[in-house]
Amino acid sequence: MTRGASGLMGLTEHRDLRSGETVWGPGKTAPGDPLPDTVDIAIVGGGIVAAILAERFASLGRSVAVIDRREPAHGSTAASTAQVMCAMDTPLGELVSLKGEAQAAQIWRRVQDAVANLSARIDALGIACEKQQVPTLCLEGDVLDAAALEQEGALRRSHGLPYVFLTAEQSAERFGISPRAGLVCDIDFEVDPAALTLGLFAEARAHDATITFPADVVALHAGDTTTRLDLADGRSLDARDVILATGYERPLLFLPPAFSLLSTFVIATAPGVALPNEREAMIWEAADPYLYVRADRDGRIIAGGEDIEADSASRRDALMDAKSGAILAQLHRLFQREDIEIERRWSAAFGSSPDSLPAIGAAANLPRTWMAYGYGGNGIAFAALAAEILEGLITGKGDGDAAAFSPYRFA
User: Fold this and answer.
1) Residues 42 and 108 reside in one and the same domain
2) What is the pTM of this model?
3) What is the pLDDT of residues 172-206, one digit of tens each?
4) Domain that holds residue 158
5) Concatenated DSSP letters for 278-313?
6) Which residues contact 45 (CB under 8 A, 6 or more apart)?
7) Same-domain status, 227 and 291
C-alpha cells in the first residue's frame, strides 16, 4: 500500500489510472457535499460501480454517503469501453470446464439479466447518457476458431442465451468487414460512462445521498454496530455498512491477490470517420491479444486492446506509441480501409481475475464491510450485478448466486 500526501497509510493503492485524452470526459461536476456524521451505507469510490450502488441503496430509503479522493467519474470510468454487454471474456464452454455446466450457465444468465435490468433502470430514470442499443459481434480468433465459435454459440443457445452464429460470408455481408465467422448478440447497448455515472449520482442525491470529495479514506475501525471511516484530513464518519468500490486502486488488505491489474490501450478517430456499416455493432475478437472496435454517435471509430501484464503507469505510457500503431494496423485490416487515422489515444489500468468474473461479497476480515470490484472485462455489467447481489446480502434477503462471485472463490 502507498502513502498519501498526509503520510498516513492509505486504505487503497494510489495509482495513475489513465493517460492521454479519452472520448468520454466527465464534464462539469456538482460541488461536493459536507461529510455526514452517520449513515446506513458508506461507499468508498466515485466511479460507475459506486454510482450504481449509491442510486440503488438511496432509492431503497437508505442513507448513503459516497466518498472518493477524486471528483466523480474522474478515474477509470472515463476510460471504459462504454459497451454494456452480456458476454464475458471467458467463453461459456471454458467456464463449464471450470465450474460445471449448471453453474456456468447460471452465471451467464445472471449477467444477462443484470444488463437487461440496468438498461430498464436507465430508461425509467431518464438519464441522459447517449444510451442506444448496439449489437456485439465476437469474431473468430486464436482462442476460438470458426468451428469452436459455432459450438460455443450452440451451447449458449441451449441455455437460453441470445446468440446467433454467422459464417464468414454472413458477417462480412451484414457488417461490411473482412470475412470472419462470428457470434452476434442483438440486446447489448452502449452509453457515455461518465454521463451515466454523474446521472446516477444525481438521482442518488435526489434521495438525500451525499457525495464528498476530495476525501481520502485511510482506515476502517469496526465497532459493535457501526464502522468508523477515518479520513486523511482527520474527519471521520460512522456507517452501519461499508462498501469498497475503488476500482483499480485495490484495498490490498481486503481484495485477494488473484484480482490483478493489467494495462490496456485505446485509440479514437475524429468524428465522422465511421462509415454506416461500421456503426452497426461493437466488434471484438476471440483472440489473445484481442481487438475491440465500436463507433460512437459522432461517428468516431474507437478501438482498443493489446493488453499487457503490467500495472506500471510509466511502462504503460512508454508503450503507447507502439500499441496505438498496432491497433491502427488491425483496424485497417478489419475494415479494409487505409484512410483511418488516430485523433486521440489513451491507456489505462484494467482489472482481471482467473475466471474473468468480478469480486462481489463480504470482506472476510472486517464485519459489515463489502466489496464490489468489476474485474474481468465487463465492468458496467458487473457493476449492475454487484448492486443486485449486495442489496440481497446487506438487506438479509440473500442471493443464490453470490457464492459464484465471492472474492474468496480462488482460496
Assistant:
1) yes
2) 0.92
3) 999 888 899 999 999 999 999 999 999 999 999 99
4) 133-189+259-352
5) GGS-EEEESSSS-EEEEE-TT--EEEEEEEES---H
6) 66, 68, 244, 245, 246, 247
7) no
